[in-house]
Amino acid sequence: MRRVxxxxxxxxxxxxxTFFARLSCxxxxxxxxxxxxxxxxxxxxxxxxxxxxxxxxxxGKTRLLKRLAERLGAHNCAVVLQDDYYFSKxxxxxxxxxxxxDHPDALEFELLASDLARIKQGETIRSPQYDxxxxxxxxxxxxxIEPRPVILVDGILILDSDxxxxxxxxxxxxxxxxxTRLDRRIERxxxxxxxxxxxxxxxxxQQVQPMHVEFVRPSSANASKVYDxxxxxxxxxLDELVDYCQRHAAxx
Length: 252
Known about the structure:
By secondary structure, this protein is α/β, with parallel strands linked by helices. The chain has one domain (about 5-250): Rossmann fold (3-Layer(aba) Sandwich), CATH 3.40.50.300. The chain has 8 helices and 9 strands. It has helices at about 15-25, 60-70, 110-120, 160-165, 180-190, 195-215, 230-235, 235-250; strands at about 5, 30-35, 50-55, 75-80, 125-130, 135-145, 150-155, 170-175, 225-230. The protein has a 5-stranded parallel beta sheet with strand order 4-7-3-8-9. It has a two-stranded antiparallel ribbon with strand order 1-2. A two-stranded antiparallel ribbon has the order 5-6. The radius of gyration is 18 Å and the shape is globular. The model is unreliable at about 1-15 and about 25-45 (pLDDT under 50).
């Protein structure tokens, strides 16, 4: 299969909001493939294929999603983030430990599922935007997401929601050890979300890991495929997902 690549430098970090904002409007130059139009038991051609990428906090799912988005190109895919569907933290819960972000009830899954159903029908959706510094949805601020052949959905609990599962055509779950996830979470939350290391560790021990055991890890049973995080590092998971998209999605 002939491939033509457009080089994109990854030496400079692009933060998550900027990356996904550029991706949704098609402004990120990415690798382009001459895809083969082979299919098996997926949805009919010329429809939207929705792929969920789940796993514990900082398991590597967002890394996999970004690299898959880059391989497919902005003309072929768009990204929907579970994290944008958090409810605003109640004013009374001044401490993060008083609002459990890792429990399914913290997320408006019905709205997420509704948005996925609409984009599958060819509609442009307006995804809410969540401010993790203030822990509220940004008022009157949305991200427009247009239909693409592939829609990628990122989130720790998307496989726990029956409403969201009904909208997914394919899903993967990334397994990763708790100590590795904690180290990554400390680095991310201190750098990107203005948190202290002490607060991150306390939240991980009191909320993140208990909710992982109760809700996130059991939801892996709903995944189409489960990968060890080493498959993300080695690109084995990426290559399999690219192959899935080649065979199941109406790529351009």
